[in-house]
Amino acid sequence: MNDRPYRNSDYLALKAATRRATMEAGTLADLARRTRIDASRISKAGNPNESEFLPIDVAMDLDALAGDDRILRAWAELRGFDLVKDERGVAVESMARHVGSVGKESGELISEMCSAIADCKVTPAEATRIEAAAEDVKDNVLRLQDDCRRIRSGER
Hints:
67% of the residues lie in helices and 0% in strands. By secondary structure, the chain is mainly alpha-helical. It has 2 domains: 8-78, 434 Repressor (Amino-terminal Domain) (Orthogonal Bundle), CATH 1.10.260; 95-152. The model has no long low-confidence stretch (mean pLDDT 87).
């Protein structure tokens, strides 16, 4: 019996956010040099089959190195909070990068969906992959929308 305060799926959501932040932040070797933990521990923190999670200070480092707040946002959502970033003085990130990410992640979502329905059945594993791909699209669209809002407001 598990007496932890969250469901297993909540912890898996944090692992998914960790995995995505890791992919955006750089190679595991680079991240090990730029944080206080080794590449193996970083990898395990994003692996749904491992029980290890990032220490909070390393999660902060990873979000900063990824140029995003994926892990923080995932945690806030699990706690029922909406993050609202103070946009004053924030420079617009590379819109071209975000446009490319939306296209790439959308293609991966479409591919996952097509693969899943090819046999007219969707397994739980396929549903998990579709959900993860959809989350990637959502995250990238949110970043793109943030860029557009900052541009419209005159920020650089």
